[in-house]
Amino acid sequence: MRAPSEDFVSRVLDVVASIPSGRAMAYGDVAAALGSRAARAVGTVMSHYGSDVPWWRVVRASGHPAIDHETRALQHFRAEGTPLKWSRDGVYRVDLTAARHTP
DNA sequence: GTCGTGACAGTAG
DNA sequence: ACTACTGCCACGA
Questions:
Q1: Between the CA of A81 and the C1' of B4, what is the distance in angstroms?
Q2: Nearest-CA residue to the C1' of C9?
Q3: Rounded mean pLDDT of chain A?
Q4: Cα separation of A77 and A24, whole Å?
Q5: Which CATH number is A70's domain given?
Q6: Of A10, A16, A50, A57, which is the most exposed, with the fewest CB atoms less than 10 Å away?
């Protein structure tokens, strides 16, 4: 059993780092994996510490990537073969129906 | 100990 | 499809 004394940050990074290539998780799913509903806290932590984890594999419940990082995430999704759903306006979103990773 | 902020989620119009 | 409002939790000042 992992010492529950671990910082919230360490746990978030651990979950994100455990997402396999070609898969994705919603912020709420990551929080749920930690036993919390702090989806917002996960995003806040990611913005400061996510630089060392595959943050692009963490998307919103709607399938949209992290705000202001859509183009950056797209490069990785295309390279990893992550299931994407495209709209007619060139707007894309991750197909969580197929890419959702559950621990 | 209180307030404000945030890479969110869900519901309603 | 969109915006608006509310609810949740963690962190810094």
A1: 40
A2: A38
A3: 92
A4: 10
A5: 1.10.10.10
A6: A10
